[in-house]
């Protein structure tokens, strides 16, 4: 029913567009060939883009390139580390997209030739595109923490900042901890994937301690930044649930970790050494390698895009969505690097691509983010962001959005608010996964 | 007259339908799918399906949240981003989609207890939740049990001060143990 009807779309767009647009309507079929859209990266951004491209214009030839046959959601993966969730509940395959007519290729996209409009794959294939969606997520800059490395991450010291085997490896390390031992978590300079993630992880580790009688154990958060997402909500929860157990050290107080010694399990800033029994280094990150290699990133390592369409401002006919891009009402209200941001960016990109392939102006974009965090069973909260076009510019709508109320006078009302959002977190995951993969 | 041109009429309606589905409301409604599912059919377990709910009911909720007249944990922060007209258009859009019950099986004991507990709900929602008596009342058959349980919790919490007096009173009359059974009873109904 909501299947997007292309003819209707074109008609509606013509009705809305200036008269001149009617004269340049090439149609999606180019000389008898269906327009081809290639999507690189099958996470929340890429999977949602592929699905909605096909839904909105079934005539498109949509190909998704993804390395892994099973996707594991980062959202709610901290709950797997603490034992409150199961990793199986965070996983999805690509059969749903195949059933919708998306060609899924399990391969590694190794290069983009923007002049020839091709993507080359490790397996030897070359794919032609009329439009390319890049949703490569993040890669890590291991050099940002001297002494830490990809090898350490895959063996003794998982960062677990991409959900999967490292999530389970970190869970195992936590399960080996004794009472009185210390878990050190280091937070890279922003922007990073999932702004509230580190503080949620600290909460989940504390929750594990509390439930397993490790009452003298501590979590130390060594942070490169001077504030963090939903700070008031986290601090309120920590005071109530884990008094004295979680210590946060701001960047200005010497929290910015720049080196790591795996032998002594010590992470160090220029001022402090943080020695832990388990040290979880989250290295700084940047856009996925393919975006960097294709020259689509700025000097900070992220992909600049047209805020209204998600098309790269560096290379036309390439749309970048998800964690790899810089988006929002900059410089003040950047869109967080979250699954929900990626999904709405993907839907906007799909609409903009179909419009462009038909020689039409892009439809008005709507961007939403909802991001839930759980600190303990029955205790959750959220932040909401809404971005809309006003006067031709994308703006953060201040009248809407924001974090859950922190201070609620009536204790029953406070409990209700936190319980509802802890439950909604799992409902949100179930739905956003289905919206991308089913 | 109408009977003489059934094809024309049908074609006209279909065209109007397509055009109505291809404008800003489609683009906006697509953002709702992230939590409420494609075509407003939620994947569960505590996010409500919204496709096919009565237009007046949906519009009331959206506008009451926006004006701060109805408690919501999260939705109030969403609706404030849109004009009253846009919210009304969303209500109309989702109400026109078919109601797709997601039948969640329950054992006989739960069903019997749920049936008994929901006697007081019948007048407004119908015996199985599928036949609400007016446009301001939602369907409950095949709605997600987890969601309905949380809604009842809202109505039962005095401080939440939910707006509908009759619903508030009836929700509070339920025994604690009956809340989940009432929710699972409706969730199990196909019609």
Question: Could you explain the architecture of this structure?
Answer:
- The complex is a heterodimer of chains A (438) and B (191).
- Chain A is α/β, with parallel strands linked by helices.
- Chain A is built from eleven helices and 27 strands.
- Chain A has a five-stranded parallel sheet with strand order 5-2-1-9-20, with helices on one face.
- In chain A, helix 2 crosses helix 11.
- Chain A is globular, with a radius of gyration of 22 Å.
- The N terminus of chain A is likely disordered.
- Chain B is mostly helical.
- Chain B folds into two domains: 66 residues, Cytochrome Bc1 Complex, Chain D, domain 2; 80 residues, Cytochrome Bc1 Complex, Chain D, domain 2, CATH 1.10.760.10.
- In chain B, 55% of the residues lie in helices and 0% in strands.
- Chain B is globular, with a radius of gyration of 18 Å.
- The N terminus of chain B is likely disordered.
- The chains are: A alpha/beta (438), B mainly alpha (191).
- The interface between A and B is large, with 54 and 45 residues.
What is the topology?
The complex is a heterodimer of chains A (about 450) and B (about 190).
Chain A: H1 6-16, E1 36-40, H2 44-56, E2 61-66, E3 71-72, H3 78-82, E4 91-92, H4 95-99, E5 103-106, E6 109-113, E7 118-121, E8 126-128, E9 131-134, E10 138-140, H5 150-154, H6 165-175, E11 182-187, H7 197-211, E12 218-223, H8 231-241, E13 246-249, E14 259-261, E15 266-268, E16 273-275, E17 278-281, E18 285-287, H9 289-293, E19 303-304, E20 318-320, E21 325-326, E22 328-329, E23 333-334, H10 339-357, E24 367-376, E25 379-390, E26 393-396, E27 402-403, H11 411-437
Parallel strand pairs in A: 1-2, 1-9, 2-5, 9-20, 11-12, 11-17, 12-13, 19-21
Antiparallel strand pairs in A: 3-4, 6-7, 7-8, 10-18, 14-15, 15-16, 22-23, 24-25, 25-26, 25-27
Helix pairs in contact in A: 2-10, 2-11
Chain B: H1 6-20, H2 24-36, H3 55-67, H4 75-79, H5 84-95, H6 108-117, H7 122-125, H8 145-156, H9 165-173, H10 176-187
Helix pairs in contact in B: 2-5, 3-5, 6-10, 8-9, 8-10
């Amino acid at each position: 029913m909501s299947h997007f009807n292309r003819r209707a779309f074109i008609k509606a767009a013509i009705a809305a567009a200036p008269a001149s647009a009617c004269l340049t309507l090439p149609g999606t079929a180019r000389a008898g060939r269906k327009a081809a859209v290639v999507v690189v990266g099958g996470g929340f951004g890429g999977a949602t883009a592929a699905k909605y491209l096909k839904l909105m214009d079934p005539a498109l030839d949509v190909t998704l390139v993804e390395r892994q046959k099973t996707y594991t959601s980062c959202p709610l993966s901290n709950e797997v580390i603490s034992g409150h969730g199961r990793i199986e509940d965070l996983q999805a395959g690509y059969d749903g997209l195949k059933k919708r007519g998306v060609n899924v290729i399990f391969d590694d996209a190794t290069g983009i030739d923007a002049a020839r409009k091709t993507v080359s794959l490790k397996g030897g294939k070359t794919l032609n595109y009329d439009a390319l969606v890049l949703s490569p997520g993040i890669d890590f800059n291991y050099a940002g923490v001297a002494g830490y490395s990809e090898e350490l991450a895959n063996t003794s010291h998982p960062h677990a900042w991409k959900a999967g085997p490292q999530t389970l490896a970190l869970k195992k390390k936590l399960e080996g901890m004794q009472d009185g031992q210390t878990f050190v978590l280091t937070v890279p300079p922003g922007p990073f994937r999932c702004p509230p993630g580190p503080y949620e992880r600290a909460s989940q580790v504390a929750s594990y301690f509390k439930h397993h009688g490790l009452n003298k154990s501590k979590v130390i958060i060594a942070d490169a930044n001077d504030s963090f997402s939903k700070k008031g909500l986290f601090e309120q929860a920590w005071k109530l649930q884990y008094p004295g157990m979680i210590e946060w050290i701001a960047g200005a107080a010497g929290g910015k970790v720049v080196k790591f010694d795996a032998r002594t399990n010590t992470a160090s800033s220029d001022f402090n050494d943080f020695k832990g029994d388990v040290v979880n280094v989250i290295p700084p990150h940047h856009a996925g390698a393919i975006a960097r290699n294709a020259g689509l990133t700025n000097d900070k390592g992220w992909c600049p895009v047209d805020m209204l369409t998600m098309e790269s401002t560096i290379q036309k006919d390439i749309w970048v969505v998800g964690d790899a891009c810089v988006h929002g009402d900059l410089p003040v209200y950047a869109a967080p690097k979250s699954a929900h941001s990626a999904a709405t960016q993907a839907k906007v990109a799909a609409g903009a691509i179909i419009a462009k392939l038909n020689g039409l102006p892009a439809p008005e974009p709507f961007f939403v983010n909802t991001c839930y965090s759980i600190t303990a069973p029955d205790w959750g909260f959220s932040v909401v962001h809404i971005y809309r076009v006003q006067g031709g510019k994308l703006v953060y709508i201040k009248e809407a959005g924001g974090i859950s109320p922190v201070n609620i006078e009536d204790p029953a009302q406070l409990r209700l608010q936190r319980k509802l959002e802890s439950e909604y977190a799992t409902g949100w995951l179930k739905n956003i996964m289905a919206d991308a993969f089913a | 007259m109408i009977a003489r041109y059934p094809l024309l009429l049908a074609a006209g309606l279909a065209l109007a339908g397509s055009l109505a589905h291809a404008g800003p409301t489609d683009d906006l409604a697509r953002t709702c799918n992230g939590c409420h599912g494609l075509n407003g059919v939620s994947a569960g377990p505590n996010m409500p399906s919204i496709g096919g709910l009565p237009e007046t009911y949906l519009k009331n909720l959206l506008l009451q949240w926006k004006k701060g007249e109805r408690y919501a944990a999260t939705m109030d922060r969403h609706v404030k981003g849109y004009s009253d007209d846009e919210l009304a258009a969303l209500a109309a859009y989702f109400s026109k989609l078919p109601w797709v019950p997601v039948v969640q099986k329950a054992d006989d004991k739960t069903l019997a207890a749920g049936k008994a507990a929901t006697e007081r709900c019948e007048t407004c929602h119908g015996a199985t939740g599928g036949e609400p008596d007016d446009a301001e009342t939602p369907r409950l058959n095949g709605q997600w049990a987890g969601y309905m349980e949380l809604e009842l919790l809202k109505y039962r919490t005095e401080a939440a001060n939910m707006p509908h007096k009759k619903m508030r009173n009836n929700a509070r009359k339920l025994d604690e143990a009956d809340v989940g059974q009432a929710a699972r009873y409706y969730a199990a109904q196909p019609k």
